Amino acid sequence: MSPNISANTHSDPADGEGDPLLTLYDDTMRRNGNVAGCAREQTAHVSRYTTSTGSQRYIMWHDFAPESAGHVVETELSSVAGNAKVLMWKLYAHDVAHEALRTALLARGFSENDHYTLMACTVDTLSERLSAMKVDAAESPLDVRELTTPQSLDAYQEIWDDVWPGAPNKRYVDDYRDRLVRRDPGIVFFAGFAGTGVDAEPVTSGYMFHHPGAPFALLCGGTTKAKWRRQHAYTAMLAARTRSALGRGASFLAVEASAASRPILERVGFVPLSTLAFYEKHIDEPLRHAPLLNR
């Protein structure tokens, strides 16, 4: 049963205060989330999520007074050393101590990555709108497939190296291969191919985080090779993941949308909840051990 919350009523995405859907997202996806392939640690001030490979640690949620920002960042830098190679802090516009934390992160050598808009929609609404648009396999020029083996993620490596040359794509792909090896139920991978059979060219990607029983499914990794854009590839991948979310019993879909994706998502029913940016710092100390996953 879906929670009695509508994605059509929301507050200004600049602050998000008092929005019940955003409150649900913060609680189930940030503070107390079950992130595929990650071990969660809860402290008095933050929620940490560390990948099983030790490739990176995410700080997904925090709660402290502005004057404590510098101390908390120093504590997290000390904690991550030897446990992960990258510390990634996700900072949302509606978070407490936002400006103080941003200042503390930048002062300690974190790089500020692109800004995104957190958007959400009910699964039922999106399913209905995509059906009305007749977005299905017959309408798409692509063969959309679920990727279920570590080797099948070679498709992601090819797509991402084409779209983002020089980015740490291998780091992410290797993490995702590990999640397939572990048969993690909290993530599902899709890709769209031009042509059929073993010679088909992978041209678009999109995956979905959804812990069984959780209200939200988070759609990520939606990207397409340049020559295949404006041919409904993004929408076809959106439709595939919506069908998967519907079958898994999710109530809401969320996306951390780029400026290019936001208009597409608004047309099919997504609404903005907040904005966010990623702050990233590479850690020089070698890993002491691979973290254990929560079971």
Explain this structure to me?
By secondary structure, this protein is α+β, with helices and mostly antiparallel strands. Helices cover 30% and strands 29% of the residues. It has 8 helices and 11 strands. Helix 4 (123-132) packs across helix 7. The protein is globular and about 55 Å long.
Which key features would you list for this structure?
29% strand; alpha+beta; 295 residues; Aminopeptidase; 11 strands; eleven-stranded mixed β-sheet
Order of helices and strands: HEEEHEHEHEHHEEEHEHE
Termini separation comes to 25 Å
Oligomeric state of this protein: single chain
Low-confidence stretches: 291-295
Q: What is the strand tally?
A: 11
Shape: globular
CATH class of the largest domain: Alpha Beta
Number of folding domains?
2
- Measured by DSSP, the beta-strand proportion falls in 25-35%
What is the gist of this entry?
This protein is of the alpha+beta class and 295 residues long. Helices cover 30% and strands 29% of the residues. The radius of gyration is 19 Å and the shape is globular.
Secondary-structure blueprint of this entry?
Elements: H1 20-31, E1 38-42, E2 46-51, E3 57-62, H2 69-80, E4 86-92, H3 98-107, E5 111-122, H4 123-132, E6 143-147, H5 154-163, H6 169-181, E7 187-194, E8 201-209, E9 216-224, H7 233-248, E10 252-257, H8 262-267, E11 271-282
Parallel strand pairs: 3-4, 9-10
Antiparallel strand pairs: 1-2, 2-3, 4-11, 5-10, 5-11, 6-7, 7-8, 8-9
